[in-house]
Amino acid sequence: QVQMVESGGGSVQAGGSLRLSCAISGDTSNTVYMGWFRQAPGKAREGLAAIHNDDSTLYADSAKGRFTLSRDIVKNTLYLQMNLLKPEDTAMYYCGAGSMRELFTLRTSAYTSWGQGTQVTVSS
What we know:
The chain is mainly β. The chain has strands spanning about 1-5, 10-15, 20-25, 35-40, 45-50, 55-60, 65-70, 75-80, 90-100, 110-115, 120-124. It contains no helices and eleven strands. It starts with a strand and ends with a strand.
């Protein structure tokens, strides 16, 4: 069982930056990839960026150019650096872990462990 705890959310003005962190613990032996997602009120959860155990990455179009995923293996922490934030980035942000070896994807159905989320609010 993988435990994931997000932090770093908050309220910022448009154009600002935030760095989200996801502390990972528990049994990660079956984890193949981890990623960042967000969910705005009334909308489906959306994949933003993911990293595979082989260090390959995936980015959604909405994240390319503004968001950067990284990880610190020693600290067992996943990060999402978010720059040039826009009001439409307002959402609850989650990290997730997946174990489907045959498919590296941002589809939420492939992720089986989730954190509790951290709120990001961007004002205009």
